[in-house]
Write a structure and sequence with these properties.
This protein is mostly helical. The protein is built from 10 helices and 3 strands, in the order H-H-H-H-H-H-H-H-H-H-E-E-E. It is flat, with a radius of gyration of 23 Å.
Length: 227
């Protein structure tokens, strides 16, 4: 059974999505997440659904590339998040294309959208781009909303390093570059500990940085000299 393609029409989504779910269960049972995701996204066409699919694919490919170049994580630590969504995660597509989720809904979502403290920048920008296109938000207004929605640490570095941010496209590119750099830094610092010893008068301050936290230890220096 071929479910066909979906062109973004809200009136056709329910029928198409029902066929897709049956098709996945019958034809792609046991397949890897990347194969299932690619199979569904390849069936989205048109200026809205096709663009949404392209944004998702670009985000997954970028995450897969970053994951392939990331250092190995010790068995005692949590693994890196997967690059491709699971089938359950992919059910989020319903939020974008069900008939009730029209441009007004997308505009409301865009106004209250914020990048989560642990949300990858590629995932956030893909979500923002999809809502921007669904709501038909103009670039200049979208640029202001994006600046407001970015994590403070990302936006702060964009300003401090005087990165391009005048237009929506420039701000998005700078946010992606800076966000990926910060994520790569966190991956490296979490995979191995770093110790700093700061000497003081008869006192050492030892900081040990590890997985998601930092410990400070105060160690008194014993003076063995006879005075």
């Amino acid at each position: 059974m071929d479910p066909g393609s979906f062109d973004g029409s809200p009136q056709k989504f329910h029928e198409w999505w029902s066929k897709i779910k049956v098709w996945i269960q019958i034809s792609m049972e046991g397949e890897m997440d990347v194969q299932v995701t690619a199979a569904v996204l390849s069936r989205l066409t048109g200026p809205k659904a096709g663009l949404w699919a392209q944004v998702c694919l670009d985000s997954c490919m970028a995450a897969a590339h970053a994951l392939a170049n990331a250092p190995l994580v010790p068995a005692s630590q949590p693994p890196h998040p997967p690059a491709w969504p699971t089938w359950n995660d992919f059910m989020e597509i319903e939020r974008f294309f069900l008939p009730g989720n029209n441009a007004e809904w997308a505009r409301a979502q865009l106004l209250c959208l914020w990048q989560g403290p642990r949300q990858r920048v590629d995932d956030f920008l893909a979500q923002f781009e999809a809502l921007k296109n669904q709501s038909s938000c103009v670039d200049q207004y979208a640029r202001d909303l994006l600046e407001r929605a970015l994590q403070r640490k990302v936006l702060e570095q964009i300003y401090l390093q005087n990165m391009n941010r005048d237009t929506y496209v420039q701000l998005g590119a700078s946010a992606r570059e800076m966000g990926r750099a910060q994520e790569f830094f966190l991956i490296n610092t979490q995979s191995q500990g770093v110790s700093l010893v700061l000497p003081g008068p008869k006192l050492f301050i030892i900081f040990s940085f590890g997985q998601r936290h930092a410990h400070g230890h105060w160690c008194r220096q014993h003076n063995t000299a006879k005075g």
